[in-house]
Amino acid sequence: MARRGHLVPSSVPTSSSDPAPALTLRKEDKLAGHNGRVFDLQASVKDLSSSQPLRIAAVGEKGGSVWTFDGGARRHVRLPGTELMRVCWHPDGEHVLTGSAEGAICVRDASSGQTSATLQAAREDEVYGLEVLSEEGLLAAGAGETVQLWDLNRATRTSLAAFTATESGVHFGAFVFSIAARGRILSAALSDGSLRLLDSETLQELATLCAPALATAISPTSPLLACSDRAGGVLLWDLRQLGRGEPIR
């Protein structure tokens, strides 16, 4: 049975008087070749000290692009299609996964853009979430009112969890807007104004947080879950404190 409640911080300061650290952003470059609105992007290398070349994949209303940076060289490859909503990197680092507005997840060669496999996650709903869960090729996908697990090596769906809207839902349905994963925790932001926490191996629902969320993310270095709300704010939750208190705002 899923629990309803809140997660709270344990050691993160909550006082509004605590000064926020300053962050300066400077535009370094502009990536050419991508047309139209950009819906999602992801880098292939999370550690910039890695010896592997950096690759950035982006998708949007007029297809997608992959840029490869190797030393001073830069190469651009187009990903054909329209209304590509989400993108993530395959565990092998040589392919990208794109999710479309038509419910298809395509496995594409990052060097050529060619499609090697297509996973049909939905027939009429958009794919709004893609998260690789393991180096062995387990993929979590959010499509329509479902979260699904796929075996990329066999191009087979292994599990599916369907959502229903909460009684206090602020929007129609329970469509997945965004997903994020870390370890056994899989978070899904839904259109009904809730944040659902699932077991990433079984898709059993662990908790429902009443937090109108449009996007969600989980810190890779601390037990913090983040979501953005309709008012433009970001809420932080402590994953160690399930069922008590309010989020850090």
What labels would you give this structure?
249 residues; mainly beta; Methylamine Dehydrogenase, Chain H; five-stranded mixed β-sheet; four-stranded antiparallel β-sheet; 20 strands; 47% strand; globular; disordered N terminus; WD repeat; WD40_repeat_dom_sf
Write up what this structure looks like.
With about 250 residues, the protein is mainly β. The chain has a single domain, classed as Methylamine Dehydrogenase, Chain H, CATH 2.130.10.10. Helices cover about 0% and strands about 45% of the residues. It contains no helices and 20 strands. The protein has strands spanning about 5, 40-45, 55-60, 65-70, 75-80, 85-90, 95-100, 105-110, 115-120, 125-130, 140-145, 145-150, 155-160, 175-180, 185-190, 195-200, 205-210, 215-220, 225-230, 235-240. A five-stranded mixed β-sheet has the order 1-17-16-15-14, with no helix packed on it. A four-stranded antiparallel β-sheet has the order 2-3-4-5, with no helix packed on it. It is globular. The two termini are about 30 Å apart. About 35% of the residues are buried. Mean pLDDT is about 85; it is low at about 1-15.
